[in-house]
Amino acid sequence: MGLVQAVAGAVGGVLADQWKDFYTVPEGLPATAALFAAVPRGTNAGRGSNTRGSSNIITNGSKIVVPEGYGLLLFQDGAVTGFVAEPGGYEWRSDDVNSQSIFAGDGLVSPLIKQSWERFKFGGQPGSQQAAFFVSLKELPDNRFGTQSEIYWDDGFLNTQVGAVTRGSYTLKITDPILFVKNFVPARYLQPGEVFDFTDMDNAAASQLFNEVVGSLAPAFSLYTNDPAKGNRISKLQQDSLGFARSLSDAVEQGYQWSSQRGLAIVKTAMCRSSTTPTRVNCSRPCSAPTRCPADAATPTCRPASRRASSRPARMAAPPGWSDWAWRPAWSAASAACNSRWPRPRPPPKTRWPG
Fold first, then answer.
1. Which of 140, 212, 207, 209 is nearest to 173 (CA)?
2. Which of 37, 51, 210, 227 could form a disulfide with 42 if both were Cys (CB 3.0 to 4.6 A apart)?
3. Assigned domain for 316 exists
């Protein structure tokens, strides 16, 4: 019984695969789709009989239409065998016996008899796998980033450590599709019906990219503000999205090698919110003259380290009847914010009333 089913499957599959296929982009794709399989159109307006062909077999003479902004990756038995970057219609040709067709000029014996015998060896199914995948060559939008807490870097212009809470989005581009597929795309997305989407929350590979971008924000801010050739200040950030995108792309490349190992690049960024705060933690830089703290004009003057002792506010005299040790006024908030080297105010001990 198994032999009869195998023969019937082999002959039926061979006859069904003689029809040429017409491959195009699937319907209902999201705008952020990066990689997906080409789908055959067995019918058009209710007309067409090519609906029972084998999966993962492309018949010789089949036509594949590549739209604008996309590339075409061809696979044979799991290996990348070709890439097309220009839009247009292309014809599939393969030396594999399972792709041969009487409608493609491959004769009668090889497409029918030999192919049936080869499929019979595998229980009636084809013994090879062929696939065509579209890869987006456009800028892929809506890749978001953000931080829940402050990130810190050393700002050369302000000459202090700066913290920021930020969020925004960036556009991503696949610069090397073959490198992208070989080194980064999981195997589950190289199957028909699967769509690799960078914004898919269930895509573990896309989540890894999000974490790497967040981890590169502090180096990107540092590259942007500390490059003497650019003369950039943090206040220019929202006006120079392309400049910050280059800094973010360089930081990601230095830390995670997106371009050289994955074929990915950040093109543009859009900052939705960025709140920066100069910090005064360990503010002990040597100063030749008194200078203003960079936060605002309300903060007191930062003194050189050798003159810190003389810059303390004078101690207030104890009220009459109070012992001197029981009177511990707190330093002013502005002084404590400017110089963290001063001892933090301690709460006064229990009051000893004069007796």
1. 140
2. 51
3. yes
